[in-house]
Amino acid sequence: xxxxxxxxxxxxxxxxxxxxxxxxxxxxxxxxxxxxxxxxxxxxxxxxxxxxxxxxxxxxxxxxxxxxxxxxxxxxxxxxxxxxxxxxxxxxxxxxxxxxxxxxxxxxxxxxxxxxxxxxxxx
Length: 123
Known about the structure:
The chain has helices at 15-34, 44-57, 62-84, 95-120. By secondary structure, it is mainly α. The longest helix has 26 residues, at 95-120.
């Protein structure tokens, strides 16, 4: 069983309910884009991964995970495109960055988000 350092996993924490907003919140824009994009069928695996991450990390973890995975994808993807000599039209998979961001938030998310809020002046 996976558990956070210093905090045991508890099913009553509401993490199972957190998978629903992660799934629905990501499904709605992708289904709307599916009418215009032929590749929208490939989004289902990312939606399932985001729903699982919502169940593991809770409702407060979904937005930081999406933000962190976007930043990771932009930085690592740009470096990858530059070193390979590819252009911006080359598709970059988003799932690995989503998984890395989910793992980072699962392990160290609460202290990192708290430090961000303090540094930004929001707390």
